[in-house]
Amino acid sequence: MADINTFYPPARLANLATLANLASAVDDSNSVADISFYAGAESAAPFRVTNGATSAPSSASSLTITSADILANSFVNGDVVYVTDDSKTNIEKQGSVTAEGAGTVTINMDAAFTASDTTDYTVGKRTPNKLYITF
Questions:
Q1: Is the separation of the CB atoms in 90 and 84 below 8 Å?
Q2: pTM
Q3: 43-68 burial, b for 16+ CB within 10 Å, e for fewer?
């Protein structure tokens, strides 16, 4: 195997202390879990809702989206969510949940939301450091 000078040419004797400090900070044994996974059917995933409907919003600060895909406890007040309309005029616009329940979710949008679509809205909710795999 090549020595450190081959892979890192500036790594000379004067830099060894710096390199040793950097190496000790690397979590190459994955001692701390960096990510968790969700794997399951998309229809059962509580973090993503498709085919949501709402009236065509014009500079709306709040959206109420209805869908049979919204399960009870899919959202909690205060959840940060991302809304995309069917025509993709608005892609993952951020907002927060202000009311929720089976079949409906109300979102206070961070910026005014305007769209001509009335169906096929997608609402996404993510958990940091979680990879979602659906099938």
A1: yes
A2: 0.62
A3: eebebbbeebebeebeebeebbbbbe
